Amino acid sequence: MKAYLLSIAAGLLVGVVYSLLGVRSPAPPMIALAGLLGILLGEQIIPLASRFVTKENVAQFVMTECRDHVLGRLPGDDTGKHDA
Fold first, then answer.
1. Taking phi first (over 0 means left), then psi (-120 to 50 degrees means alpha), and beta for anything else, what does residue 74 get?
2. Domain residue extents for the chain
3. pTM of the entire structure?
4. What gap in Å lies between CA 26 and CA 49, rounded to an integer?
5. Which of 2, 24, 77, 79 is deepest in the core (most CB within 10 A)?
6. How far out from the chain centre does Cα 1 lie?
7. What are 14-61's pLDDT values in tens digits?
């Protein structure tokens, strides 16, 4: 239930931002996709920065966890770590 409430809250926030920018909702497809890409990439900023600070292997993070989160399960990925 908490995830649904957070999702609604995030949607409300995005709706307010759309209103301030003068973009109608539903947004034109290109604007909506650009926004979703920004959200996906923005979610990776904190984990990426923390790896820079702790001097962990940033390239490994980008090629595994970050890639998996941003792109989802790619065709041919039979690792089985993405089970629902």
1. beta
2. 43-84
3. 0.50
4. 33
5. 77
6. 20
7. 888 878 888 776 656 777 778 788 888 888 888 888 888 988 888 888
